[in-house]
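2024-03-11 09:14:02 INFO worker-7 job=invfold-0412 stage=load source=structure_tokens
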């Protein structure tokens, strides 16, 4: 049985500082695909923000529980409802993690949604949506493409 968390890695020619700044501007990259709406700040430790997509098909509220400038950001999902699955609160208690690493003169961003595993009913749809945002929105912003 595969219990691996969803992960995605992006290599960037930008500095860790630049990548960190882009990640904390959540509205700039986690939007523009599914009629997303946000409420609240997304940059500092203990900030809380909500995210809604497709007129409420996906709702989640996040709290920034770890912020290490230019190295790591962790969001704790503190509330949520996914209307397209039976267990609508599947995301509550999971963590969205951004690790920023310097390797051989480049910056590597490792995205992990800790707790989003293939055992979850929403895994296929949620991992697909994350991949779409990360490939189509975030990656071009941090790779200058």
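2024-03-11 09:14:09 INFO worker-7 stage=emit residues=145
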């Amino acid at each position: 049985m595969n219990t691996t968390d969803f992960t995605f890695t992006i290599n960037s020619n930008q500095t860790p500082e630049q990548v960190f700044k882009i990640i904390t501007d959540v509205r700039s990259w986690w939007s523009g695909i599914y009629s997303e709406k946000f409420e609240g700040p997304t940059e500092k430790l203990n900030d809380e923000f909500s995210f809604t997509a497709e007129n409420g098909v996906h709702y989640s509220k996040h709290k920034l529980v770890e912020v290490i400038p230019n190295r790591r950001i962790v969001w704790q999902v503190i509330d949520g409802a996914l209307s397209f699955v039976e267990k609508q609160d599947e995301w509550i208690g999971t963590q969205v993690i951004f690790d920023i690493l310097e390797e051989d003169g480049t910056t590597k961003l490792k995205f992990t949604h800790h707790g989003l595993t293939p055992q979850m009913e929403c895994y296929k749809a949620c991992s697909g949506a994350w991949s779409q945002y990360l490939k189509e929105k975030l990656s071009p912003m941090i790779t200058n493409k």
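2024-03-11 09:14:09 INFO worker-7 stage=report msg="Strands lie at 6-12, 37-39, 48-53, 58-68, 72-82, 95-103, 106-114."
2024-03-11 09:14:10 INFO worker-7 job finished
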